[in-house]
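Task 17 of the worksheet. Students: predict the tertiary structure of the chain below and write it out as structure tokens. Keep your answer in the requested format; marks are given for formatting as well as content.
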Amino acid sequence: MALAANLGIAAAKFVAAAWTGSSAMLSEAIHSLVDTGNQALLLLGIKRAERPADAVHPFGYSKELYFWGFVVAVLLFSLGAGIAIYEGVQKLIDPRPVTDPYVNYAVLAVAFVLEAISAHRAIGEFNSRRGNVPATAALRASKDPALFTVLLEDIAALIGLAIAATGIAIAHATGSPTADAYASILIGLLLGAVAAFMSIEIRSLIIGESASPEVRRDIQEAILAEVGPDRPIRAVNEIRTMHLGPTDILVVASVDFEDDETAASIEAAVSRIEATIHTHTPAVRRIFIEGQSARDYARSEEVLAGLPPKTVAAPATRSTERALTAQAPAGMPPSASEAETAAPTQADRPAAPPAALLSAPPTPAPREPSAPSPADRTSRKGRKRQKGKRH
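Model answer:
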């Protein structure tokens, strides 16, 4: 319905622009035509983003909406802003008077009413989502390009209609078409500013933005609920989030599980974390929790940063702490140095023999010549005597 209304408004503006020769009205006609195309592209993006994940796109197609939103911004800038500014400059170079301005007034009035209704709905939806957050901050923090694209285009349409009506009225009152030309240029600059803002925001979404601070806090609380004494997680190394779509959030967490926890205990903890996050944040669709010691996590971060890995003492495990507590005097907890010393590191373990030595059979050692025994000497003398008798 909205597409048909915008298309009808665009057709009426084109007819009025051709009838009266107004550049401002022509710019508004192009603006309405671009708005119609943009709405069609956004609907296409929403439809394609709903496709399920497959082997080629294992995380789904949610980012399709971001892509088509960026296409909308490019079209708004190239077609809407570019043509409007060009038409205004041409009118300044070759001034043409505006005829039958009342036709323009009638078309602009109807368009203003329809655009005001659409803008009222978009603003109401935007206000319901932003809550108490300031409008500008909420607009920049929004993860839904369809919402802020429609909102910005409706507001820009109202401002553009006001500029066009003002320019035509001044040209009608003064008889000079210059005001009409400047109105067309101002409409082009307005569309260019909206397109630039949309491009910057959607580009950030395509690259990958984290979830809002409120969502990140809920996720962190769900994971920290499993940290502490008699809990399976010793520490949380890192939590990362990314919006794949307006209602599709990816969560990746690196946690340090207690070494003496069983696989069943770890699986139960992960299930509790996922259930809590899904309950409080339905937009989180995929959660990946990696078990990694704090030492290994620090080493991996150093490698990613291009720094030489440092040797870090392994943290004391829960069983090691209990053993040190039992050995320490009454009322004296084990010191941090004792805990680090008790925890074996990689350097403290004996080095494994090379694989070649493990697979090759042992080589027998060469025998040293031993002195002949008395029996051997006696037998040799007997053989010599027999040889002498024969001769």
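Marker's comment: The chain is about 65% helix and 10% strand. The chain has a mean pLDDT of 81.
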